[in-house]
Amino acid sequence: MQAIEWQYESRPVSYEEAVAAMERRVAAVAAGETAELVWLLEHPALYTAGTSAKESDLLDPARLPVFKTGRGGQYTYHGPGQRIAYVMLDLKRRAADGVPDLRAYVQSLEGWIIAVLAALGVEGFTRDGRIGVWVDTQAGEQKIAAIGIRVRRGVSYHGIALNICPDLAHYRGIIPCGISEHGVTSLEALGIACTMAEVDKLMHQHFPYA
User: Most buried among 16, 120, 131, 148, by the most CB within 10 A?
Assistant: First the structure.
C-alpha cells in the first residue's frame, strides 16, 4: 500500500468542488490507481445537511447557503477558521477480513482529535450517543469537533471539522448535529491561540494510520 498523501489548501474550497474532488479520489483509491489521502482545507461559510438532517433543525435558512450531502449526520456549519480534514482511506483493504468496522473507524477519528487537543493543553472527550469531540467549559459540555463520514466501495470520505477560530455566531442558524442542549465552542473561545499551520502539524503527527 502506498504511503498516505497529505494535501493542504491555502484558499477556501467551495463545497461542490470538494465533494467532486473527493468522489474522484475515492474511485481512484478503490481501483488501486492512487494513494490514500488526507485533505486539509477550509470552506466558505455554509451549512451542510447530512443524511439524517431534519428540516426543523435549520433555524435560519436565509443566513448561509445550504448543501445536502451524502455524509452521515445532521446539520453542521463550515467556514473560515475551521480545519476540515477529509480522510480518504481504503478501509476494506485495511480490514483483516475485508469488512470495514465503521464504528472503530469513527472512534479512531475521535481519538485523533482528542490527541491533537491534548497537545494543545485541552482535554477532549467523547460521549455515548453524541458523535464528535467535546470539551468542558463554563457553559457546560460543548462540541469542538464534528465528525461525519461516508464509505463507498470500502473507501472512506468526508471526515472531521475542528473549530479553531470560526465565527461561532453562525451556529445560531442551525441546531448543530440535532443537539440543542449543548453548545459549540472553539480553541479561540477556550483561550488557545494557535495557527492553522500549527494545528496541521499536530494533525499529521497524531494521525492514527500509516
Answer: 148
